[in-house]
Amino acid sequence: MQDYKNMLDAYTQAGGTSEIFKDSNIAHLVVHKNKVIGSHLVKGLILEPQETANGVDIKLTVEKGIKIENPVHLCFGVLPKEGIQEINIKAKIEDGAEIKLLAHCVFPNAIKVVHKMSADIEVGNNAFFEYTEVHFHGSTGGAEVIAKAKMRVGKNSRLITNFSLLKGRVGILEIDYDSEIQDNSILEMTAKVYGYGDDKIKIRETGRLIGKSSRGLIKSRVAVKENAQSEVISEINATAPEARGHVDCIEVVQGNALARAIPIVNVTNEFAQVTHEAAIGRVDKKQIETLMARGLEQEEAIDLVIRGMLR
Amino acid sequence: MEILKIEKISLNLEGRQILKDLNLSVEANTIHSILGANAAGKSSLAYVLMGCFDYISRSGRIYFMGEDITTYPLQKRAKMGLTLAWQEPARFEGLTVKDYIAVGMKKKEEVLIEESLRYVLLEPKDYLERVVDKTLSGGERKRIELAAVFAMKPKLAILDEPDSGIDILALDKIVNIIKELKKQGNTVLLITHRDEVSEVADKTSLMCSGFIVKEGKPKEVGKYFKEKCVPCPTRIFPTEEEKEKLEDQNARL
Hints:
The complex is a heterodimer of chains A (311) and B (253).
Chain A: H1 2-13, E1 28-32, E2 35-40, E3 45-51, E4 55-62, E5 72-77, E6 82-93, E7 98-106, E8 112-123, E9 128-136, E10 143-153, E11 158-167, E12 172-181, E13 186-195, E14 200-209, E15 215-224, E16 229-238, E17 244-253, E18 258-267, E19 273-281, H2 285-292, H3 298-310
Helix pairs in contact in A: 2-3
Chain B: E1 2-13, E2 16-27, E3 31-35, H1 42-50, E4 59-64, E5 67-68, H2 74-80, E6 82-85, H3 97-102, H4 110-119, H5 124-127, H6 138-152, E7 156-160, H7 171-183, E8 187-192, H8 195-198, E9 203-208, E10 211-216, H9 218-228, H10 240-252
Helix pairs in contact in B: 4-6
C-alpha cells in the first residue's frame, strides 16, 4: 500500500495526475520493480501482466474495431536507490482499433537503477496507436534506461511515439526504436531529452517506409549542458513508391557538453522522397538578445529557449 | 526633458566604420524618427543603444534618463525601461505568444496580455496559444513583437522598421500603433526608411553613412530625404571632405 502511494507521488512529480487512477473510465497499470501494484481495465482492452524475476511481461491487445476512448495510463518505477526493472511488452492493436498509451517511468531516488524496456508492437490495418513515455529520474543521475521497440504498422494506419526525459538527471539513456510502415500509413516519432552533469544519451530511431504512399517523420530535440553527451541517429528508409519522409533533429549544446547528430536517409525507389535537417549549436544569439531586451538575464533567456524547444 | 542623449558614438564592425561620432538627443514622451536609406547604419544604432552583444561602441557616451549606460549590459538597460522591437523578430520553437509577451511584463496577467494583442489588432483567442515559430507570418510576428513591447510598458521603445514587410494597406494601422504607444506615456525611437511613416514623429533625424546629417520637422526632413538623398551605391563611409560637404549642404537647406 505504501509502495502504491509512493509510486503515485512520484507519478505526480513526473507530471501525471494521480486522480486518473480513481476514474473507472480510465484503464491503468502500476508496476513497482517486478510487482503489479495496481490495475484497472476498460471494455475492449486486454491487458495481461505477468510478474517475472526482474520485472513484468505485459501482453496488451485492443480487439478489432475497438476504440479505447481515454488514454491508458501506465506507471513503471523503482523507488529504492538500487534495483532493476525489466518490462517486456507485446502489444497488438487489431484492425480498426485505436488506443493511446501514456507511460510514466519514475526513478526518483536512483543511485543504481536499471530500467530495461523491450516492446514488440503490431498495429493492424486502419488502426491508430499512440505511445507517449515520460520519464522522471530525480537529481542523482543514477538511472540507466535501455528502451527497445520493434513496431510494425499495417495499411492506412497511424503510429505516434513520444519520448521525453526533461525532469531530473538522465543518467544513461539508450533508445532504439525501429518501425515498419505499410501502404498509406503514417509514422511520427518524437524524442525530447535534456541532459546535464555527465549524462549520456543515445537515441536511435528508424522508420522503414515499405508501403506505397507511406509517410514518416522522425523528430528529435536534445539539449545538453555541463559535461553531458548525446548522440542522435535518425534514420528513414524509403523503399516504396510515393513514400515520403522527413528527419528533423536539433541539438543545443552548452558548456563542455558534446552532441552528435547523424541523420540517415536511404531511398531506393525512384518515386520516393526523404528530406532531412539537422542542426547542432548554441542557442541562437538573436533569440537570447530578444529575451534579454525584455529584461531576462542571459541564463534565464537560454533556459526559456531550451524549455520551449523541448516543450 | 531629455530621455536619451548620445554623444559621439562610433562603431566599427569587421574593420568597417558603421557609426562615426554620432550625436542624438531624444525628448521624453515624443516620437523621434530616424529616417535613412538602407545601409545608413540605422539598425546598428538601435543595436548599440540596446547593448546587443557585438555592438559595443569604443568611444562616446550614451545617457538614458540622465544615467550613463554606455557600459551597461543589454539586460540592465532593459530593466531600466529600454527595449527594442527587432526589424526581423526572432522565432521561438515551443514558446507560445502568451508566454512570449509575458516575458517583459512586471504583472504577468492574462488580461494585460490580451489587451496588448488587441492593441496590435490581433484577436487574443486566435493567438494566445499559438507558437512564436515559423507558423506565424512575418506580418503577424511583427505585430506580436509590438504587442510584447506594448505589454512591457518601456520608458523608451526602439522600433526598428516596424513598417517593413507590412503591406501598404496595413501601414496606417502600424502608424496608429506607434501613436498609441506615445499616448500610453512611452517614448518611441522609430527607425524607418519610409518618409510617410516618419511623419508620425514629432522630430526626425536623417541618417546617412553612419551619422546624422539633418534634423527637424518630419515633413521637411522627409521632403529632403525624398528629393535629395540617393541610395548609397555601396556601404562606404564618407571621407571627411564629403562629410563637410554634406553638412554644408544641409546647413544651406
